[in-house]
User: What shape does this take?
Amino acid sequence: MLPDILTPKPLKTSHAQPNCSTCSLRELCLPVGLDEPEVEALGDLVNHKCQIKRGEYLHRAGSSFKSLYAVRRGFFKTCVLEKDGRQQVTGFHMTGELIGLDAISTEQHTCDAIALEDSEVCEIPFTKLEEMGRNIPPLMHHFHKIMSREIVKDHGVMMLLGSMKAEERLATFLLNLSRRFFKRGYSSSDFILRMTREEIGSYLGLKLETVSRAFSKLQEEGIITVSNKHIHISDIDRLKSKVGG
Amino acid sequence: MLPDILTPKPLKTSHAQPNCSTCSLRELCLPVGLDEPEVEALGDLVNHKCQIKRGEYLHRAGSSFKSLYAVRRGFFKTCVLEKDGRQQVTGFHMTGELIGLDAISTEQHTCDAIALEDSEVCEIPFTKLEEMGRNIPPLMHHFHKIMSREIVKDHGVMMLLGSMKAEERLATFLLNLSRRFFKRGYSSSDFILRMTREEIGSYLGLKLETVSRAFSKLQEEGIITVSNKHIHISDIDRLKSKVGG
DNA sequence: CGAGGCCTTGATGCACCTCAACCGACGTGG
DNA sequence: CCACGTCGGTTGAGGTGCATCAAGGCCTCG
Assistant: This one.
């Protein structure tokens, strides 16, 4: 049921000078809207990158919290485990997105973060981020926006889980992925899913069979083409009309 | 369907010197863990309180964001409206809790906040809070914890919506309320619900009839006693065993 | 080439939704 | 005062969307 669980830690780190100034993700990540000297200061803070192979854990629920992680390359899922063994995927994270915001509250991670493909993250020591935020108000303010955005996103998922039917949920999910890929310079109509049907189902509150059937239905209707993990959206307007229609 | 919609603004304000130092909610609210001078500074920041009557809006989705609100007395719901008219309750908020964290990201409120009983809130201008946080690191850090806690809470709700059955959802909900009342010095086994069955249902992703039936079932089993909005929990252990059992 | 993971599809059952009737509490106005 | 309407809640009957169980096919990778 779980993906291959390889040794979780220690993380392989590289000191190949991460540099926010030249990072292509700059506009998606933490430095949004900062001036050059500020971005350089932030670059000093991010003291190393970690390589995480597919199936490896970035962190586990319960492990102590020191740093946030910015996804530099790759794809992650985060999931929480209930005591009775049920697991729920709480999010998928792609380049430029921050992982670990949930852990600030208790200084322990509340979820597992697992790489769904070979990935690379920038480690951002949180106490240093707070220190730096004191001297760079726009950085602090932007960080608050990021946390707030996470809350808004979660409310969207609650809405989805609370009041949408299977097909609407899947359409919403695909449109969300599409938009996020587009923002990163990839095609908004052709992409590869990095997660299994079961993981999608867990995120959307559905069983994997239901996800599969919903894919088939959208395909029969000529809205998308599905070939294993490859998704092609052929009629995005009709896909949009599925949600809240 | 909606409760009485009275004039939303302007809010009635009172300058009866709010004072965090002497506030009985201090340990539940923003000043947790601050020293005396720091709490006093925070008190200066909270420049006035607002009275909100039952059914009135604290803010509406789309309205511009200036301040967070700390509930000083009373009870609120927040809810988002979908374009097709469906509404989803995203949270219930009691004394000591902060409302408006979702609005930081876009500087617009993303949800309506409505008082479910006559209430009073402290208005906390957000830019001032950020300024003050620069000089009082523990305040900033605690604020980050509060935002993070909100994210964790939302993940809990996602788990509930994604993988629990009706009875489990209601049990989880009641236990959560029970714990929050207890923290505020009220009985953990006897309390009045401030929201309707429909609002509970919206929050839990259920229809009101299903909520009602779940209440009846728990009552038949001798776990709780329901009398309109009054809930008595007579066997909290069995109630706990309902969730994740 | 074989094994296992992932996916699809079908058949069946059930939890919850939907529709509907009814009840009690409350407020209003004759 | 009671008649009345409204709102929130309960309960029943029937329908349905999704879960469950099961079988089989297809990629992938050792």
Notes: The first strand of chain B starts at residue 12 and ends at 14. The interface with chain A takes residues 80, 82-84, 86, 88, 90, 101-106, 110-111, 130-131, 133-134, 137, 140-141, 144-152, 154-155, 157-159, 161-163, 202-205, 244-245 of chain B (CB under 8 Å). Residues 165-166, 206-207, 209-210, 213, 228 of chain B lie near DNA strand C (CB under 10 Å from a C1').
